[in-house]
């Protein structure tokens, strides 16, 4: 189709309503990424001990690179596919499938991990829900929560954007208050330095902690998922993304430094063998690692008494929203992948009455329930505990989920960096309202392009985290690649049956598609700029060929 | 919520929080330099201070843009 004709022709498919304002877009991302520190803090403290702040720093710097890449791509291609769409467009069908399949793993883990942690936070107010004391009750409640979220999503009930915005606003204030009072009343820099010197971990533990720290930064996917519903996405997404990236980085670094350098106002209880323990050990223990932010807040003088009451409730609500975003996100990504023939068309099937992707919701919530069983098994049966001790060094349930979460995120993000580089070379004509800084300009196939140095640094960082995950997590090493392999086998069978190319890509008219995307987003200036760039670049390429 | 986010109060709040972040980041960097100097233990704190200052500058930028659009 001619580009100027595509610019005028109406789309035949109904599109999502663009109702998200800058604050709405921030809140959407925050309700997903902001919940991560509630889960990640305890896990990282348990693994990286006195170097937890260094683990968060390394993962945080990689996350800044990931965030910048997502910001550029989501502002340039404001569609609802997220990372999977960028990889499909930049690297082709099979890599798009692998990235999407890894994101799907992350979303299913997201459902379980956050539902699990939500109940952990509530257990601080209702001890009957405590996992270490009543594992069966905890398991059954998490099971019911996931089942309930699946049902709500099937009948099409979602929390409203306004609810997300209020909870996110309250949480930003609450987390800031915890940090403010924590640093004011209880932080001692000399304790921080002492803990870092006395409890510095082994290189293996540090790698383990760093790979777990990345889970505190997972969820940027949701901003690009929301791109298709954001007003003026090319200018709004960079504004909200940068605020979100900096806010989350600040929270992660501040919480980890506070946890290592705080002087608690009440004595820390001894461990189960009666030995005295450091605060990081207490927060990273199996009893507390699922609700570390609440425990840390309750140890702050004066403010802790109040925080102990409301943080469990606020944390539980935010975690529940995040778990729900896993149900929503997995079903929508499967739907999008099925539309581009990366997954079978059954994932596009919508419920006749509720008009929701019921099959996708059922399948991926089913996967989440299987993951829940694997995570809870060692606590539910002694035989399984022995087996896990022999095979997996006795990793506990929540660490198992953290392992897989880190694997899925690192795998998909590494492809997103490659897609960023590929799209810079393949589609230099796409106007980029936001461009990652530090680029090397050169001519590629007769056209001026800019090579992103941060893309390479970020790719090296995220790949090293992927390697750390594979080296240090026995379950992640086995289960993560198995998930990818199973998916690839399914993909090959499906594409063969459909007579579609397996290792090559189908023909996609990305140019026409880009014009339609920009027009539907209301970015008409960018659309005109794109059409003009295409004409100019084509002329330059033709001139080069003629020579 | 939407009304509040579009109001003049929120606009001034951006300016106030931006100033607060810059002051906090500056104070943190100053205190860390005074306490530790250029010690590797302090690298996470340096990055935290810089991130706070950057967030403050970003809030200022947002404030400027919002004021221009009003």
Task: Give short descriptive properties of this protein.
heterodimer; A: 547 residues; mainly alpha; Amino acid/polyamine transporter I; two-stranded antiparallel ribbon; 22 helices; 2 strands; B: 70 residues; elongated
Would you mind describing this structure in some detail?
The complex is a heterodimer of chains A (547) and B (70). Helix content of chain A is 71%, strand content 2%. With 547 residues, chain A is mostly helical. The longest helix of chain A has 37 residues, at 303-339. In chain A, 55% of the residues are buried. Chain B has helices spanning 2-6, 8-36, 43-69. Chain B is elongated and about 45 Å long. Chain B has one domain (16-69). Chain B has 70 residues and is mostly helical. The chains are: A mainly alpha (547), B mainly alpha (70). The A-B interface holds A 21-24, 53-54, 56-57, 60-61, 162, 165-166, 169, 189, 192-193, 196-197, 239, 242-243, 246-247, 249-250, 253-254, 256-257 and B 1-2, 5, 31-32, 35-36, 41, 43-45, 47-48, 51-52, 54-55, 58-59, 62, 65.
For the sheet with most strands of chain A, the description reads: 2 strands, antiparallel
* Assembly classification: heterodimer
CATH architecture of chain A: Up-down Bundle
* Sheet with most strands of chain B: none
Give the SSE string of chain A. Answer: HHHHHHHHHHHHHHHHHHEEHHHH
Separation of the first and last Cα atoms of chain B: 18 Å
Topology:
The complex is a heterodimer of chains A (547) and B (70).
Chain A: H1 3-8, H2 22-33, H3 36-48, H4 52-76, H5 83-91, H6 93-123, H7 135-154, H8 161-186, H9 189-198, H10 203-213, H11 221-225, H12 233-261, H13 279-284, H14 292-298, H15 303-339, H16 358-380, H17 382-392, H18 397-426, E1 439-444, E2 447-452, H19 453-472, H20 474-498, H21 510-520, H22 524-546
Antiparallel strand pairs in A: 1-2
Chain B: H1 2-6, H2 8-36, H3 43-69
């Amino acid at each position: 189709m001619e580009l100027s004709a595509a610019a005028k022709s109406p789309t035949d498919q109904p599109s999502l309503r663009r109702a998200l304002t800058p604050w709405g877009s921030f809140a959407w991302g925050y309700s997903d990424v902001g919940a991560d520190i509630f889960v990640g803090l305890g896990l990282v403290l348990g693994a990286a001990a006195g170097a937890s702040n260094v683990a968060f720093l390394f993962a945080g710097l990689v996350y800044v690179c990931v965030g910048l890449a997502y910001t550029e791509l989501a502002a340039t291609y404001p569609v609802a596919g997220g990372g999977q769409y960028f990889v499909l467009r930049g690297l082709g069908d099979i890599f798009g499938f692998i990235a999407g399949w890894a994101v799907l793993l992350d979303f299913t883990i997201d459902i379980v991990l956050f539902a699990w942690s939500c109940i952990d936070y509530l257990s601080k107010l209702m001890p009957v829900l405590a996992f270490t004391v009543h594992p069966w009750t905890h398991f059954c409640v998490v099971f019911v929560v996931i089942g309930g979220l699946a049902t709500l999503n099937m009948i099409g009930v979602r929390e409203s954007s306004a609810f997300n915005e209020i909870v996110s606003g309250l949480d930003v204030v609450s987390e800031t208050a915890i940090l403010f009072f924590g640093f004011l009343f209880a932080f001692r820099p000399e304790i921080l330095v002492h803990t870092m010197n006395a409890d510095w971990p082994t290189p293996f533990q540090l790698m383990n902690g760093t790979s777990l720290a990345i889970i505190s930064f997972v969820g940027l996917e949701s901003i690009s998922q929301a791109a298709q519903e954001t007003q003026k996405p090319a200018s709004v997404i960079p504004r909200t993304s940068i605020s979100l990236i900096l806010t989350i980085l600040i929270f992660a670094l501040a919480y980890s430094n506070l946890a290592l350098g705080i002087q608690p106002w009440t004595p820390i209880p001894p461990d189960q063998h009666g030995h005295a323990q450091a605060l990081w050990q207490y927060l990273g223990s199996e009893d507390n690692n699922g609700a570390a932010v609440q425990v840390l807040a309750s140890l702050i003088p004066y403010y802790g008494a109040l925080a102990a009451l409301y943080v469990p409730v606020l944390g539980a609500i935010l975690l529940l929203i995040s778990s729900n975003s896993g149900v929503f996100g997995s079903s929508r990504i499967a739907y999008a992948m099925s539309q581009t023939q990366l997954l079978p068309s059954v994932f596009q099937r919508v419920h006749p009455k509720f008009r929701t992707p019921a099959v996708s919701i059922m399948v991926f919530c089913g996967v989440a329930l299987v993951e829940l069983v694997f995570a809870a098994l060692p606590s539910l049966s002694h035989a399984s505990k022995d087996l896990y001790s022999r095979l997996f060094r006795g990793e506990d349930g929540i660490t198992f989920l953290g392992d897989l979460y880190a694997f899925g995120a690192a795998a998909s993000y590494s492809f997103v960096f490659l897609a960023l580089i590929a799209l810079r070379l393949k589609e230099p004509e796409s106007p980029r309202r936001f461009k990652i800084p530090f680029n090397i300009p050169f001519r590629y196939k007769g056209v001026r392009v800019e090579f992103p140095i941060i893309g390479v640094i970020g790719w090296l960082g995220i790949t090293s985290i992927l390697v750390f995950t594979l080296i240090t997590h026995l379950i992640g090493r086995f289960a993560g690649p198995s998930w990818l392999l199973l998916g690839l086998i399914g993909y090959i069978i499906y594409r063969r049956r459909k007579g579609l190319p397996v290792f090559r890509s189908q023909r996609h008219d990305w140019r026409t598609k880009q014009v339609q995307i920009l027009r539907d987003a209301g970015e008409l200036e960018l659309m005109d700029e794109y059409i003009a760039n295409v004409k100019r670049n084509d002329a330059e390429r033709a001139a080069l060929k003629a020579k | 919520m939407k009304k509040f986010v579009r109001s003049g109060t929120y606009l001034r709040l951006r300016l106030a929080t931006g100033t607060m972040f810059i002051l906090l980041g500056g104070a943190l960097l100053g205190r860390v330099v005074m306490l530790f100097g250029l010690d590797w233990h302090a690298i996470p704190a340096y990055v935290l201070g810089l991130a706070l200052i950057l967030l403050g500058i970003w809030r200022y930028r947002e404030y400027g843009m919002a004021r221009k659009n009003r």
